[in-house]
Design goal:
The complex is a heterodimer. Chain A is an alpha/beta fold. Chain A has two domains: 239 residues, P-loop containing nucleotide triphosphate hydrolases (Rossmann fold, 3-Layer(aba) Sandwich), CATH 3.40.50; 213 residues, 3-Layer(aba) Sandwich (Rossmann fold), CATH 3.40.50. Chain A has 16 helices and 19 strands. The radius of gyration of chain A is 23 Å and the shape is globular. The relative contact order of chain A is 0.11. The mean pLDDT of chain B is 83. Chain B has two domains: 128 residues, no CATH class; 67 residues, no CATH class. Classes of the chains: A alpha/beta, B mainly alpha. At the A-B interface, strand 6, helix 3, helix 4 and strand 16 of A face helix 6 and helix 7 of B.
């Protein structure tokens, strides 16, 4: 059904680097294929040929032949495959055209000018298959990331495509939402759809795949069939720079975790509660002790208010909670000066024209030599003059961490620092955090990434959903 | 977001925005139309109540009432600068507030697909409708981005009273623009793969149509217009 024959590709935006070189692949009808490999290995590029975003959206030079549905792809336009090939993208925030969920499900079908009754019956079937009655007729901006991704999958399903592409669909999802996504993929598989998934986080789909392709720098390095998939080991993952195969819920880790008895100082938090206008309390913590000078992971199910907790602790969300540090009392305004937070979307916190400036404005007193030292620590010195927005996702993350180091604030908060990172970049973040710990800082991170927790966290705290 | 069909048809809402602008904001027709002007100045408050936007309605109503109170109690007894100042406040609020509230009512109660259906029925070409739909989609996005960026600036100590005051606008705008551009790009990629713009004729499952309240609004508009024309003719 899908054939790549000796395909080479170079993006116009990045002419020095070959994005794909000599790719030859064959994918048969009804197969579920997992494409994986380090960031920039070319797995997303492969999908972009199939959904037509290359050449419609991304320009570049291609050699070789790609055949889909017995048609060679250069003869087609992006619209030829609408309805036959559907794509679920990475960012749940940016794949909706409408503001309400029901219109979103109808959107693709409406564009194809299907009759109204047909659209309505398709929506009904999708809603019952995916079990999303409660999400219908809602404002998309009020949904959580996991719920948005469900709607994205459902809106693709309503088009009834033969081929479904998923481009890092779990990058912004927590453990439970990734499990939900797995159920949806399973459903598509049972319906006989051909599925291609490009992912770093391989564990949740590993067993579903009939066929796994490991890529590196634009080439296929391993092409695993069903029998080889079962024999693939953790060590082999390390060798190819892949994330772990183990599927461990961070909540499980927290339950099994034995609280260490340090002879340690603690940061004490009292009376942290918060409620949003429309909802009841999302956060209700009477008392919490977090060890100083350690790395602590905050885990918890969806809706447990993890991000809200960080925002309250940091002080960017005004609240009545009090923090005691070294015997001193801090209210939310005073905490702002003691705590640095690296947000989940680091795009929101990089303001300046160059990476170096970014570090300089974070320092209590600007000092260029020290700033360069810090950039060297996070491996960004060669990018000192680049515009922060031109960096890759992993590099932006490290730029934000460099600012945190430069701020000299004793406490560092991170919100899902490893979502969407490959193994190598995850290790880099762990290394930087460990170095911060050695320098005497306290690190608190919200995360769903069990591999990251096992790698560098000393303590795990579970936030429970507030029940009325 | 209003469930099911909203109280007024999107076309009626567009007409109302137009009337508010002409009659209340630009005070067309002058003294003769003052009764109609008052009716249309009160209408947005009623509509906000039907949409359950009590808070907006209450705050708007309080400001409006306070200004009217000033107009009748303080204004006649004041002279000089105070009077001039009051005139400005009274005119700005009584003229702009109803139009602003009507606009916020329309934006808050109209779904993108409803708006699109209405524009299609009015035979407005896609080249105008689609960018306007995208704007509907974009307002809340920009709002979300803006509040995240504001939080980040607060955390990093950049802001009013903080350091780097001269750069504050730049620091605010750079991430705003690059985030919005990135989201816009991803948005159009996703919409293209789902066939936006593929066929000239597009289905719309959204039901719109006129109900009794729409006809009442039309009747009121027509009466106003006739009364106005009669005045001009005579």
């Amino acid at each position: 059904m899908i054939k790549f024959e000796h395909v080479d590709f170079t993006y116009e935006a990045n002419p020095e680097e070959k994005s794909l070189s000599d790719i030859t692949l064959e994918i048969t009808n009804g197969e579920c294929v997992l494409l994986t490999g380090e960031s920039g290995c070319g797995k997303s590029t492969l999908l972009r040929f199939l959904n037509g975003l290359i050449p419609e959206f991304y320009n570049g030079e291609r050699k070789g032949k790609i055949v889909v549905f017995e048609t060679e792809i250069s003869d087609t336009e992006i619209y030829d495959f609408v309805g036959k090939i559907g794509t679920v993208f990475q960012n749940p925030r940016s794949q909706f055209f409408n503001v309400d969920t029901t219109s979103e499900l109808a959107f693709g079908c409406e564009n194809l000018a299907m009759p109204e009754n047909e659209i309505l019956s398709r929506i009904d079937k999708t809603v019952s298959d995916f079990n999303i009655d409660t999400l219908m007729n809602r404002d998309i901006f009020e949904l959580s990331g996991g719920e948005k991704q469900k709607i994205a999958c459902a809106s693709i399903d309503a088009l009834r495509p033969d081929i479904i592409l998923l481009d890092e669909p779990s990058a912004n999802l927590d453990y439970d939402s990734a499990e939900n996504l797995r159920q949806m993929i399973k459903l598509w598989k049972s319906e006989g759809k051909t599925i291609l998934i490009a992912e770093h986080r391989i564990n949740y789909v590993w067993e579903l795949a009939d066929h796994i392709i490991v890529m590196n720098r634009g080439s296929v390095v391993r092409n695993l069939g069903k029998s080889e998939i079962g024999r693939f080991t953790e060590d082999m993952c390390r060798k190819y720079g892949l994330r772990t195969l183990k599927r461990t819920s961070p909540v499980e880790l927290a339950i099994e975790h034995k609280r260490n008895s340090y002879n340690n100082e603690f940061i004490e938090l009292t009376n942290f509660s918060y409620s949003y206008k429309s909802k009841k309390n999302v956060l209700d913590i009477q008392k919490l002790r977090i060890p100083q000078n350690k790395i602590t992971a905050i885990v918890g199910a969806n809706g447990a208010g993890k991000t809200t907790f960080l925002e309250c602790l940091c002080g960017i969300r005004k609240n009545k909670g009090i923090m005691y540090l070294d015997g001193k009392k801090y209210n939310s305004k005073q905490r702002l000066k003691e705590i640095f937070m690296v947000m989940q979307d680091t795009n929101h916190q990089l303001f300046t024209e160059s990476v170096l400036d970014e570090v300089l404005i974070s320092m209590p007193e600007e000092n260029e030599d020290r700033a360069k030292e810090i950039l060297k620590e996070v491996d960004l010195l060669e990018f000192a003059d680049r515009h922060p927005m031109s960096l890759s996702g992993g590099q932006k993350q490290r730029a934000a961490l460099a600012c945190a180091i430069a701020s000299e604030r004793p406490i560092l908060l991170l919100d899902e620092p490893t979502s969407g990172l490959d193994f190598k970049h995850m290790l880099e973040v762990s290394k930087i955090l460990n170095r911060l710990k050695e320098q005497g800082r306290t690190v608190i991170t919200v995360t769903h990434d069990s591999e990251f927790i096992e790698n560098c966290c000393d303590e795990i705290i579970m936030l429970n959903e507030v029940k009325e | 977001m209003a469930d099911k069909k909203s109280f007024l048809d999107p076309r009626t809402k567009l007409l109302l925005v137009f009337i508010e602008a002409v009659l209340v904001l630009a005070t067309a027709g002058g003294e003769r139309l003052v009764i109609f002007k008052d009716i249309f100045a009160v209408l947005p408050f009623l509509l906000l109540v039907t949409a359950k936007r009590y808070k907006t309605c209450f705050i708007g109503g309080a400001i409006f009432a306070a200004v009217i109170f000033f107009e009748y109690s303080v204004f006649p007894n004041s002279t000089g600068t105070v009077a001039a100042f009051l005139v400005v406040i009274v005119t700005v609020v009584t003229r702009f507030l109803p139009a602003y509230l009507m606009g916020s009512y329309v934006i808050q109660t109209t779904k993108v697909s409803e708006f699109k259906a209405a524009m299609e029925k009015l035979h407005i070409p896609d080249e105008i409708t689609i960018p306007m739909c995208v704007m509907f989609r974009f307002f809340p996005t920009v709002k979300e981005e803006n509040s995240s960026i504001r939080a980040a600036m607060k955390m990093r100590g950049i802001g009013l009273g903080g350091r780097k005051l001269s750069h504050i606008v730049e620091y605010r705008l750079v991430p705003m623009i690059s985030c919005s551009a990135k989201i816009g790009e991803e948005l159009s990629a996703a919409a293209l793969t789902r066939g936006l713009g593929k066929s000239r004729k597009r289905t719309n499952i959204c039901k719109i149509g006129f109900g009794i309240f729409d006809y009442l609004v039309f009747a009121l508009a027509v009466v106003t217009l006739i009364y106005w024309i009669l005045g001009v003719v005579r």
